[in-house]
Hints:
349 residues, alpha+beta, Phosphatase 2c, domain 1, 10 helices, 14 strands, 38% helix
Amino acid sequence: MVTDKYYQFCQSVTGYSHRIRNLPCQDACKTILNEQPNLIVIAVADGHGSEPLSQIGSKIAVESACKNIADFVKELSNTDIIKSFKSLPKSIYCGINPEVKNNGFAISKPFYVNDYGYQKIINEKLITEEALNEFTIISDFFNALSKLEKFIVYDWCTKVTEDFSRLKAKEPEKLTEYNINESDFNNPYHLYGTTLLAAVISEEYWFALQIGDGTCLALFDENNDYSEFKQINQPIPDDERCFNNITTSICDSDSYLEFRHSVGTKLPQAIFLGSDGIENSFSCDNRKQELQSLQNFYIDLIKDFSEDTTKEKRNENLSEKLKNLTEDYSGDDMAIAGLISNTWLKSTI
């Protein structure tokens, strides 16, 4: 069972800049384990610092993502889509909804992930029957993922509406405290604005989805040895619209069209999701170098987990590690969620 093969964890900490101003942590994280079907879901969300209720919005986002992803995998398990998908070669595929642009062009076709690069499945100069079949299968899976992303957004909006109605009825004083006025009443979603990054792993495949900033890294190694790990696998492409303090958000109009996603028939030894507070701690002008530093941080985390003998000790040391990172570098809130093969940890805590 996949739940026995991986150690799952998540942690969020208040950023140093928030702690000294007595502000709440606006990042959130969540993991769930499911037996029927057997899967693990992990998620992180980064509430927008400029919005007064984003700490609630980020929590709603990770809850909506985990629930809807688990339901999606269950409903998809006996369909022709998943049967065809599981027949594909062991690889990783990524894509962006057709309306979203990356690096100046619209990505409406599936791409392979290629060691920090993306390569079209179908080379226009060499279209084979096999490539066309693979393209069709992946496109069908991506279409299903797009529907899932719409369900997540709808669920998030519904729960935000419910929370805002509760706030108006039971805690009206907070409207004044947060400088919320009547112009926000018909469209309160921006008040709860947040990014979202989630991943799931099952017995035979995995996928990840994202809106906004933050980074997903996946580690693959046939030799079960992470100590000399060099290759960088960032399964979900960066979005050029996310830079500095600007990001796409689940609160955007038609936000379900802004998701990026990645699917794989080759199972990774580890998946890490991190909000931009972690990533920005390694910020530099070279993106590949930045990702290498981030991956090294995660590899060090695997080493730490291998030495800790209890889950409580792992959580305690991870929390301390993140607190030091925010104090010494980004100053931002941080959220992390991950899956690590127990063969790497040499334990099944």
